[in-house]
Each structure stands twice: as structure tokens, then as C-alpha cells.
């Protein structure tokens, strides 16, 4: 089938399919007469795999590595994906139940203990670091941690104040269009600022992924939006545009 047909079948946009082709994630055959992309049954199955991995929050670069690996076994992958999705479902259901109980508690219908208020949450590990390791790999995070840990208390305080000043500046322009010259100049400064303070560890892909995290994790979003409502969403869009354009 052609691109438009596959897009209609899967609800994946034509633009996204073109992007997958461009980065080598899903590369269809080209019609030798008109150059149209032609997707085979194998391509359709591969797209299904891509979407399963995306639902599990795998970045596209990691998905490509997995699917390109000669040892990739589709049957094993499907079994693993099902296991991970069931785990995700159980976490969501536990949190939904806690939410329902909290609503009843607020209405005075029941009384929850403090322990019950946090059923379904698991913060035994740093969620930001886990997400960063998943997106960018251990080396990047270890390098960032090492740089900060090697600072004395005064240096760490200086970095903290510097970050707050940077976010206050970004908050001051959050109402402009993310693609505007003002926003993109700010993103250029922010990109180099992060690398200057963390030892040049952020690639453009990591920069865009960081923007995604600003919105995807509600706790992260809350910390950023304290500088100005809507800042996290603005940064996500502006950072993605900057990474794509550069």
C-alpha cells in the first residue's frame, strides 16, 4: 500500500511515516516509475512493532537499534511487549484506584490512611535518572552526575542559581511562538548553556528528548512551571524545533 493508505489504516500521520523513512527506521520500497513509497506486509508488521515499543516509551533511536539487530526475534519481542504492557496496565489501574479512593476521601465518604494515599506510587528510584538513562544511555547520565558530584557546595549552589536564572529568562518569553526567532535564539543559548554546565553531553536528540520529559513527567512539569505557567509545554515545542532545524 502507499503512504496515505498506511496512514489511514494505522492513524500514523504521513509526516511521521516520512520521518521514519528519513531516519532509516521504516524504509519502504520506491515505485520505479513514479517514486511513490510502497509498503509491504513486512513493513506493516514492522510498523506495529515500532508502535508497541513507542507505547512503552522507547526512543526511536533505541527502537531502530533493536529492530536492526540481527538477533532480533519478533516472537520474543511480542512476548516481552505484552509483559511490559501488562505491568504498565497494573500500575495505571493501581493509581486509578488510589485516585477513586482519594475522591471518596475528599467527599467524606471514607477515611484514607496516609499509606493508602500513596498506593500505586513507586519512587524507590530516581524517576528522572531512570528516564534519562533509558533515553540517552548510562554514559551520559554518569558523566553528568560525576561533574556535579565533583563540585564543592559553593559551586553546586552557583549552578543552582544559574539554572534558576536561565529558567526565569525562558519563562519571560514563553508566550511567543516556539518557532519564532526570539524563541529559537533562546533555545540556541539554552542548548549551549546545558552543554557548558554539564560538559558537552547533550546531543540535539538528547536536547529534544529532555524537552519531552519536561511535559511527560508531571513532577518535572510542575517544577518547571513554577517559573511560569505553560513554560514546560513551550520548551518542549521550542526544543524539538531547534533540534530538528539544526
UniProtKB/TrEMBL annotation:
Pfam families: MerR_1, TipAS. Transmembrane segments: none annotated. Coiled coil: none annotated. CDD domains: HTH_TipAL-Mta. Keywords: Activator, DNA-binding, Transcription, Transcription regulation. Residues 1-69 form the HTH merR-type domain. PROSITE patterns: HTH_MERR_2 (PS50937). This is Transcriptional regulator, MerR family.
Amino acid at each position: 500500500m502507499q503512504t496515505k493508505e498506511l496512514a489511514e489504516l494505522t492513524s500514523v500521520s504521513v509526516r511521521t511515516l516520512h520521518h521514519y523513512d528519513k531516519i532509516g527506521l521504516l524504509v519502504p520500497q520506491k515505485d520505479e516509475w513514479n517514486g511513490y513509497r510502497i509498503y509491504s506486509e513486512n513493513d506493516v508488521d514492522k510498523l506495529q512493532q515500532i508502535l508497541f515499543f513507542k507505547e512503552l516509551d522507547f526512543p526511536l533511536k533505541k527502537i531502530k537499534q533493536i529492530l536492526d539487530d540481527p538477533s532480533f526475534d519478533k516472537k520474543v519481542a511480542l512476548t516481552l511487549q505484552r509483559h511490559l504492557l501488562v505491568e504498565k496496565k497494573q500500575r495505571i489501574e493501581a493509581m486509578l484506584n488510589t485516585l477513586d479512593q482519594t475522591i471518596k476521601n475528599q467527599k467524606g465518604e471514607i477515611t484514607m490512611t496516609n499509606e493508602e494515599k500513596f498506593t500505586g506510587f513507586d519512587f524507590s528510584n530516581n524517576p528522572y535518572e531512570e528516564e534519562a538513562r533509558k533515553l540517552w544511555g548510562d554514559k551520559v547520565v554518569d558523566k553528568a552526575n560525576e561533574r556535579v558530584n565533583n563540585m564543592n557546595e559553593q559551586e553546586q549552589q552557583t549552578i543552582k542559581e544559574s539554572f534558576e536564572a536561565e529558567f526565569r529568562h525562558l519563562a519571560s518569553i514563553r508566550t511567543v511562538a516556539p518557532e519564532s526567532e526570539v524563541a529559537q535564539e533562546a533555545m540556541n543559548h539554552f542548548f549551549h548553556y546545558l552543554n557548558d554546565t554539564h560538559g558537552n553531553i547533550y546531543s540535539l536528540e538528547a536536547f529534544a528528548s529532555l524537552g519531552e520529559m519536561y511535559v511527560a513527567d508531571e513532577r518535572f512539569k510542575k517544577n518547571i512551571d513554577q517559573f511560569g505557567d505553560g513554560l514546560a509545554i513551550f520548551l518542549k515545542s521550542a526544543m524539538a524545533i531547534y533540534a530538528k532545524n539544526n
